[in-house]
Structures
1.
Amino acid sequence: MANLETRSQLRAICPCCFGQWAVKGEWIVDHGYTIRGYGFRNGSCYGAGKAHFGTEAGRDIAARIAVELDTTAAGFEKRAVDVKAGTEPVYDRRGNVIAAPVYAIEAEARSYRRSAATIRERLATWKPADPVEVKLEKTGPAVHFRAKVYGVLGKMCAGSARETFFHLTDDRSKVTCSRCLSRLAKRDAKTAEVVK
């Protein structure tokens, strides 16, 4: 993809997922979401909008998250014991009592305990840290190759229907979508075999 220009971005560590994300001031920007369908966001990291891990406030947030994870794990452990003893029923979607897979409840508790332990390990080595500057390439939207896919005129990579009529070209030199380029290369290879 052609580089339009470069820019700088300040990034720091999220106190929840410990990924490096952009910051505004000392606050981690929204991240950890997916965009589906017509552009609606689904989910978000618990650390979004909170102070980054390099600050004392961020360190305290991470410590609170570890405590919350342990509390949740304890709840799952108690539930597993109660389900094993038969004192807590488990219901299916229709409201029927079912034999619960206790191993799944115990696995959930172990997962929360491991996450809490990982956060505590990071807290043990915590030092104040400023955000770091990262150079990024500003790029434009992917340009797709116009093709007939399944009898419908659209883009060659046949991805999102929402983008079908945007950023299309018949000029191969302007295509920047890696999937379209890959499919063009495969089509060229097949054509070359037929010609032989």
2.
Amino acid sequence: MQNEVSCSMCLELKKIKDMAKTNEAITEINGREMMITRVLNAPRDLVWDVWTKPEHIKNWWGPNGFTNTIEIMDVKPEGVWKFVMHGPDGADFNNKSIYKEVVKPERIVFEHESAPKFRTTVTFEAQGDKTLLTWRMLFENEAQLEQVVKTFKADVGLRQNIEKLEVYLASDKKPDKEICITRIFDAPREMVFKAWIEPEQLVRWYAPVGATIKYPKLEPMAGGKFHSCISSDVYGDCWCIGTYLEVSFPHRIIFTIARADEHGNLLTPEEAGMNEGWPIETIVKVTLVEKNGKTELTLEQSVSEEVAKIRGAYQSWLEMLDALALHLKK
């Protein structure tokens, strides 16, 4: 009997994948779960980006006629996703979810804490330059699922949502090239690494030309926090907070960074006066490679290079790396 059930499940999965190859969205309701799958005409990395970046997901999320305001989108395990859906009739719908699994670029799981409660699992399967997306919504019970289908036409909305995603992927609003800067420093890798984590060194170079930096908090270890303020006569104070995701001596440092107030409270990009397209939080990755006694540094930041240049952040990185080079020569 068990083998028969397993064979039946395998055949059903094969049927879904075969149908999905036609690029048709297939919706199924089974017990307390609703599922849709579709082959999207876009590579997996691109599909992942438009699912995980607020500047993209706000443009396609929800059924036809809905728009979105993203308040918080912290795509990591136990991270919060808060947003408001604005209906075509002017009604607002507040949503809050908690991410449970984030496996880039394969799988996202989050739990919708607002009513109705459900658990969403989205998988991304590469098929050449296309992506098989499977989107599952598991409700608390069958009656709840039946109610949202009957009252809100959730099955229709889900199909419209994936169609909007397909349209968005085909538009010219694809993710821009992100910041990636490479420099060679005439210094040993260990020395360059320490300049990124020791406060007495950071205050000597980690600020643009004409500015200074201070650290009310600096915990350069995995899971550690920082709270900093870059000050200049021209632009005033710029407070930031972040978390170190990885500190691996002597080759890699990864940390988040977001705008904040002087008390360490997170600010939205709008509250901080940032340009449209700047995410609420970015990830900075610093990689150090030893090359013939020198150090090749690659700095990556999860924000559009174009937006960063408009904002001045890109130029600030260049100035700070210039300052680091001078600091290392002393």
3.
Amino acid sequence: MSDILGDLFAFLSAVFWRWQSWAGGSGAGGSVVVIVGLYERLTGHSLSKQMYAGIFIVAFLFAAFFVAWRDQYHQVRTLKAQLEDTEPRLIGKIDQVIVGATGETQHAFLVILGNVKNLGYPSTIDSWSVDLRFDGLRTVSGRVVVLPAKPTLEVKHVGTNRSVLLKTSDYLPYRKTNQIPKNSAATGFIMAGFSGVTENEILSQKPTVIVKFTDVRDKAYEMERRIDSTPDDAIGLDDFKFR
């Protein structure tokens, strides 16, 4: 209650001092005072009490309320802009999802390619996790893969022998010590395994892939993409080869 009364007193005080300043002939109110004085001198007519009250009390008071609010509004905007300059603002985007399976039929893998842009304060990215959300609100959490100490990962397409060659240096979970400057992006991939989920189940039900991560201040973010049947997604894998 005391905080409310204190805020109310501060607001009314700001309104009063602005009104008093204008009524005394300062600022924008000074122009009105001069115009009224000139009118009375040149015409020889004095304004009525009602007109004086309307101009110097009602109109000036309304203007004082508005200016007091406006000053606070712009101050909040300025402080908010200054705060944003000290906070990371990360935006993640999934560009491609490749679905495959290991020799275990009940263990599907995803290779997720994407990027994380930073529009704010420089930040690292950490605490990666990957989920699959199926229709009917079923969600399966995956296990982020630990890659072997090999320079490249070859993802081979079933049937066509087409492959995608990925650099392990672009593995996003391994880049948590790399800071992303303002207005820059980290591009790479993340790989996750899902026990109890088959490749055919993913390809047929087309769940949504949800990738979560945190910034340097442990603020949580997520990016998602629904798996579809376009050439970019769900191509199916023959195997994973590290070399």
4.
Amino acid sequence: MRKRWKCDLRSNKLLWEHRRRYSYRRITAELHRRGMPVNHKRVARIMRDVAALRILEHEAQVQDKAVVAAQKYLELAVTRYKGGVTSYLGVTTAESAALSDELTSVNILGRRMVNAVLLVQALGGGWASSELPRRPECCGKLTSTSR
């Protein structure tokens, strides 16, 4: 039976300091040199997940700006409609654009959450289902408002 090595990559500064300059192979070799026998695939997965989170964070910032701009456009369209300048078609178009941008923002948030969980798993962390709350707060709010 092979001995499984358990190493804590969360506290390893090498992995976090050089993730943008070094490839996963070079970091793996350096970890081996320091006495931490870690699989190169695990290091590659961690680096990929960190990069994905950074990219999604940037996407979320850009999308948040788009949501704010769509809301301003919607307010302008409603003001123009109330002033009699345009028809209601302009308002519905602005509402559609605002809802589309909000939906995209929520999708990005979901992808960020999934990638954060994948990163925790790649680092060797996790949780047991017994540690989770039996009924999250949001579920109670959803059921009480839908009645």
